Amino acid sequence: MNGRLRVLVWALPPFIFLGAFYFLPLVRILVTALGPDRLVGGGQAVLPDWRSLATVLGFTTWQALVSTAASLVAGLPLAWWLRDHGSRLRSVARLLLTVPFVMPVVVTASAFVALAGPSGLLNRWLMGWFDLSAPPIQLMHTFGIIILAHVFYNTSVVVRVVSGFWSQQDRRLADAAGTLGATAWRTLVTVEAPLVLPAVVSSALLVFLFCFSSFGVVLILGGLRFSTLEVAIYRQAVSYFNLPAAAVLALVQLAVTFTAMSLYTRLQRRHAVPQQVEATEQFADDEPRTRGHWIGDGLGTVAALILVSPLAALTVQSFSVGTSEWSLVNYAGLLQGRADSAFLASPVEAVGNSVRNALATMVISLVLGIGMAYTLFLMPGRAGRWLDPVFLLPLGTSAVTLGLGYIISMGPLRTSPLLVPAAHALIASPFVLRVILPALRRLQPGLRQASAVLGATPRQTWWRVELPLILPACAVASVFAFAVSMGEFGASLLIARPEHPTMPLMIFGLLGRPGLANLGQAQAMSVVLMAVTGASMFALDRLPVAIREF
Amino acid sequence: MAYLEVTNLWKSFGDTESVLQGLGFAQERGEILCLLGASGCGKTTVLQILAGLMQADSGRVRLGGRDQDGIPVHARRIGYVFQDHVLFPHLSVRRNVEYGLRMLKWPSRQRGRRVHEMLELVDLAGYGERPVRGLSGGESQRVALARSLAPAPDLLLLDEPLSSVDQRLRGDLVAQLRSVLETQSITAVHVTHDLEEAYFMGDRVAFVHGGRVNRVDAPSALVANPATVACARYLGMGNIFALDTPAGKRLREWATSSAGTGERGGTNATHLLIRPRTVLQPGHGDARPGLRCSGTVASLRPKVNEVQVELRLAQPDLEGATIRLDLARTGIRRELQTALEASAREQGARPWILGSEGIAWLSE
């Protein structure tokens, strides 16, 4: 098989998949939004007027800006504290801080309800302590809770990006400033801060991008009063079935996210300058511990604990019914389909659906990711450089937009049980690619030749040498894809069939229903989902292949 | 017809000058040929072409009378020991050695026997179940050798197999490698840039220079008579003088007459080589044959094992030419040492005789 044919064999599956499940839906969105045929379902569609569009866009931008600022305020001190490796406490804190970021959005929403909702832990305690008759904390469906949830999510982004960059800076620069007479504070302001500024800017851009595309948090915690572009797309598409209006909003969303994405990648490229890390770590270990260190450690630990407190509250609440007694009633409820349930499926079935979807996602995204990785690996020069960002495009497209695209374009496939895994695989594929490609590039080129001269055909070489060697990376990628699929909310909400709800959809449904029993079940299921995600993350941490930061 | 015939290989990469410019050699069955040359001279390229890992721009390779063109790598039955060994990191030592046999679909029992035999051959019996990651450089080199020998290839290619091995072990490994190849009576092409390795490994040594085989001969013959300027330079033989200059013409006459080498100068000779290790004897009225000259010792530089002498010639025709000589410290005669030291001290010209075997005529 010659080189070109080999590239084609690898490239074909991802190209067909991307074409059918990414570009076609996007084109259909474009056509629906701008094309002449805006009549849907026999009636004249009502396109959003400029004023309502400006209102939604304005709110989306405003909440994203406030969330970004708040995340920076919370994250930068923590990043400063975690810039040194060294103490065990700090590595625990670092692990704790990654937890919120990987949590599915419905788990976060449940967690905030469990902490600060009307019957949440804080209100229960306050009412108990001060003998109040009404819950004193009224945060649900306010601007504040949206921002808090975003801070919960994105502080870890700021910490990871900035402290990672910070720890790579040469510590001797700060030492030099010290020997020149600068106090610690002056050193921070005049030397360290300017050096880490690029990382601060990139993390801010990333957080802005995430918050701009925020969907689940705003939909669940914000209630009907607040609507970001994503929520507006969802409401237009699902509540009013006004697909052209949804498509117009989706276009605006796409334009903004792609601009922010390209800005981010440009920044990344300019500032990704690796420096010697080892020396820095050496220095850090030898540093004498001062009172400042102890205070820093104390404050940092408290901050990290506050950040994960919603998850703790969620766990506590899931084991209680009504006021304060401990019980497993909520979990027992998950095992029996409730007779009066308004759902078409029982909780157990939802778990089954999620696991099935996740397994299918794993398989599809692995095939896709391996195909993409080999395409980029074998494709020489310019073409490869041009293709790389194309394969990453799904990363910059919101799940709700994708879901909308599927509603518009999939026709008879709309009812296929494979549609949800296909969407999840598309969302997971850039991550899978980012894990497998480096593994492939690390393979010693001589191995293929050694195998060939020993009599192996290219196919035998792939099976016996290459595949076993990229298997650890594939394992990491699969766990990742599994976790992504288990927690995915936006796309599933638009395309999953009501009779096949996934766990996040079930949680969303239960949260939206009155009654403590429903709330309790939602929380129990959230804890299960949290455990699955946490376990996946733990497994990823233990697996021998490092995931490249995106 | 020779067993392996390589004819007129040409190969270039991109727009640069061709790495191979009509390289060719022939090799008998069971012979070990060393391709010796500087790094970047195209030695590895030759091996890659022989194995089918790379395509030559033009030229022909015949093995056992069969044209190799168009035969895919995996069907060639050619063994290859890579420079950095390239053991499969996910397989144990046994599974590495067994790999080629699996490709040939050998039954399990026979495979086991062959692997055992091969590991014994390379002195690694009992290493079968070890992972390859923990092996030392020498061990992994031997596993690589066993792996490529296991399927009993028609031809074995060795690409600087000892270059990643500790210098101290290299001598032992060369001897072991040579004896393994001999017991298997295998035809092998061994690529190296190391003269000593080539000297002890090869039945013949082919010196590659400028994209061609510049000189090919038995190792001892090659060292005794490098014959080409490039080869002499590569072997580190100093004192090479061009003969086409006016001084060179006088040098030719002087060498021919005083050393009595007469015809050996031939018409092809373009350069004269004066060996650094030639015997140096001071004295008058000595009738022994040799290159007679008069000169001053310009400097004496002691080294660990030898004394480097710089001799500035002083006879009328060759005024000012300098010859560098390396004299082994052991075996140097006391009176010679004294004379050298005196000459260096006094800066006076004295008569010297360079042994007649100390010169050689070279062509381009």
> Can you give the mean pLDDT of chain A?
83
Number of H/I helices of chain A: 23
Class by alpha and beta content of chain A: mainly alpha
Q: What class do helices, strands and sheet pairing of chain B give?
A: alpha+beta
Strand order of the largest sheet of chain A: 1-2
What is the CATH-assigned architecture of the largest domain in chain A?
A: Orthogonal Bundle
| Number of helices, where a helix is a run of at least 4 consecutive DSSP H or I residues of chain B | 10
N-to-C series of helices and strands of chain B? EEEHEEEHHHEHEHEEHHEHEEEEEHEE
Output the radius of gyration of chain A: 25 Å
Could you give the count of β-strands of chain B? 18
The assigned CATH architecture of the largest domain in chain B is 3-Layer(aba) Sandwich
- The CATH class name of the largest domain in chain A reads Mainly Alpha
Going by CATH, what is the homologous superfamily of the largest domain in chain A?
Answer: MetI-like
- Write the CATH fold name of the largest domain in chain B: Rossmann fold
What would a concise description of this structure say?
The complex is a heterodimer of chains A (550) and B (364). Chain A has helices spanning 3-34, 50-81, 88-102, 105-116, 121-130, 143-168, 171-179, 184-212, 216-222, 229-239, 243-271, 278-286, 291-318, 329-335, 347-378, 381-392, 399-409, 419-442, 445-453, 458-487, 490-495, 503-511, 516-542, and strands at 39-40, 43-44, 320-321, 325-326.
